[in-house]
Specification:
Blueprint (H helix, E strand, L loop, with lengths): L2 H15 L2 H26 L1 H20 L4 H12 L10 H4 L7 H7 L2 H11 L4 H8 L21 H15 L11 H11 L6 H13 L29
This protein binds fe (ii) ion.
Fe (ii) ion binds next to loops.
């Protein structure tokens, strides 16, 4: 059992020992306050990541509702999505803001962001649901993701939903180094990644939503990328999340 698992189990036992609805209500309110504070800190650090996180939260919430989650659970997932890239706020600027392709070493550093984000949340005593969702949002259905290389249903469902929402937004977003893909092109990428990067059931559900709602793709903020934030994304041939 690794540190994260041990701490998560501890939280679960602690949660089970909470008595009565008031304690639960207080805990939920406190969690929300903490997570929204972190979302604000992301906004201060990097407006592009913040806007991306807001869109991902909306997609993830819609997708969760579509696959049968309650309104409350879907709202919790949206909160997790708002801070899914929290760990990036602790990545040094010379890597985070680098305009060129990352070296292998730099890429490894960037890939620590789910773990960093999860550790920050653990330190703030938030519910393990949020910790797990942030920690595993870069895992892949075929086991080739990170940080743990979890496979299939070993990956929490919340993270599998978040992954699809996250990738779709990156694909359809304009970046200083790339144009936004059309909905059709992004749709094809999700389809080709189904069963590899994505849980096939979740990818299918997202595509159904996309097909059934003409205005599904959220607009980018007009002139959203201030000059100071334009370098916050690296030039890369593959999708960066
Ligand atoms: Fe991420």
């Amino acid at each position: 059992m690794n540190n994260i698992d041990a701490i998560t189990n501890l939280y679960t036992r602690k949660e089970q020992s909470l008595q009565g609805g008031q304690a639960r209500f207080d805990r939920e309110r406190e969690n929300k306050h903490i997570l929204l504070s972190f979302a604000n800190s992301i906004q201060e650090r990097d407006i592009v990541t913040y806007d991306h996180s807001r869109r991902v939260a909306t997609y993830a919430q819609r997708l969760a509702r579509y696959v049968g989650w309650s309104r409350r659970d879907a709202r919790d997932l949206a909160l997790a999505a708002l801070v899914h890239d929290l760990g990036k706020t602790w990545i040094a600027n010379d890597i985070l803001l680098k305009a060129d392709t990352l070296s292998d070493e730099e890429r490894k550093t960037m890939e620590r962001h789910p773990l960093i984000g999860a550790r920050i949340l653990i330190g703030c005593d938030v519910h393990p649901f949020y910790v797990e969702t942030v920690l595993y949002h870069h895992e892949a259905w075929d086991g080739r993701g990170y940080p743990s290389g979890l496979k299939g249903e070993e990956i929490p469902l919340s993270a599998r939903i978040l992954t699809v929402a996250d990738v779709y937004d990156v694909l359809t977003s304009q970046r200083p180094y790339k144009a936004a893909l059309s909905e059709d092109a992004a749709r094809e990428r999700l389809l080709s990644g189904s069963g590899a990067s994505f849980d096939p059931m979740i990818a299918r559900a997202f595509l159904n939503l996309l097909d059934s709602q003409p205005q599904f793709t959220l607009p980018q903020r007009i002139c959203a990328i201030p000059s100071t934030a334009k370098t916050a994304y690296h030039v890369a041939s593959s999708v960066r999340l």
